[in-house]
Q: What sequence folds into this?
């Protein structure tokens, strides 16, 4: 951190006022800070912000004030308990969900109820943020920070470094799977939130990050590579998910598919096996009950059998035709 703690907290706590100050910029960030250029040219952002209608400015300023206060708190407060973890994620991501939902409603793109059911909007943000925090454990620990709640990791490691240590791998995996379990608990709210979004462009805007997140958390579950590196879904898979995040029906199919994948990874000897099994089964049942045509059918094995048959038939007839030519 290149900015002294006290100064950073003061800036965060007053930033909702700064956005109304024409010409304000900030050039005291360190050379390696990713947001440095944004702050150096922040007067451009302020100019555009002031062009917005008052109702939009009011929402943005309110979210900025609450987010700044929360971020200021966690510049000197560690994430110890699950309540801390939920609060931290609320400040950095849940409030984004609050703000966007209120803007969707104020703009008229969505019904006013979308801007009022903020507990669902909060879960949308937490599902994304917790997925990132779970996935980024190796990078974060190596950088000297850790956002996993101590109440989880302290049961399996004496310190944050031990979480990613190979000599403590079995316990590190237990902590990882508990973190994944915590993320999965938000899926019902995600489904309910998306079900209330009607405008297609808004739906895609909301749905794409969610399908990316469910693919990522399933990839992270019981995956030792998470403790050694920053794992990511393949680019091809990401493109496929983007193309599928178009309607509620298609998004439900995506979630159903990844719950099936998670079931295959969730072995009985896993200490969170039963909790994960209940979540995957409930999610699949809920989706099947509302999905057009019922539960998706996986024809993977049938397709493989057909492909194998075709390949075998091809080689048989190819070999047969070659043998006939040799006889001639």
A:
């Amino acid at each position: 951190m290149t900015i002294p703690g006290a100064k950073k907290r003061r800036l965060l706590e007053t930033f909702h006022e700064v956005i109304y100050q024409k010409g304000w910029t900030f050039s005291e960030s360190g050379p390696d800070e990713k947001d440095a250029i944004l702050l150096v040219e922040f007067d451009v952002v302020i100019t555009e912000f002031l062009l917005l209608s008052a109702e939009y400015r009011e929402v943005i300023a309110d979210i900025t004030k609450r987010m700044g206060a929360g971020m200021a708190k966690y510049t000197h407060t560690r994430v110890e308990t699950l309540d801390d973890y939920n609060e931290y994620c609320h400040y950095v991501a849940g409030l984004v969900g609050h703000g966007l939902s209120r803007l969707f409603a104020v703009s008229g793109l969505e019904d006013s109820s979308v801007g009022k059911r903020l507990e669902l909007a909060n879960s949308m943000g937490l599902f994304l943020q917790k997925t990132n925090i779970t996935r980024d454990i190796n990078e974060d620990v190596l950088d000297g920070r850790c956002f996993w709640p101590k109440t989880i990791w302290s049961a399996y490691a004496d310190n944050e470094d031990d979480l990613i240590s190979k000599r403590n791998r079995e316990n590190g995996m237990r902590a990882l799977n508990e973190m994944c379990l915590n993320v999965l608990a938000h899926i019902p709210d995600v489904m309910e939130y998306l079900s209330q979004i009607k405008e297609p462009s808004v739906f895609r805007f909301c749905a794409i990050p969610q399908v990316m997140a469910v693919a990522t958390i399933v990839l992270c579950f019981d995956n030792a590579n998470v403790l050694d590196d920053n794992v990511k879904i393949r680019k091809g898979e990401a493109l496929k998910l983007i193309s599928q995040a178009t309607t509620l029906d298609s998004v439900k199919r995506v979630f159903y598919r990844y719950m099936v994948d998670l079931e295959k990874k969730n072995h009985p000897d896993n200490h969170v096996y039963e909790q994960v099994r209940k979540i995957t089964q409930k999610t699949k049942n809920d989706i099947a009950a509302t999905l057009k045509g019922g539960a998706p059918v996986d024809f993977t094995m049938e397709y493989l059998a057909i492909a194998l048959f075709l390949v075998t038939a091809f080689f048989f007839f190819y070999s047969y035709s070659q043998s006939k030519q040799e006889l001639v």
Summary: Residues 299-303 have pLDDT under 50 and may be disordered. The CA atoms of residues 12 and 68 lie 5 Å apart. The radius of gyration is 24 Å.
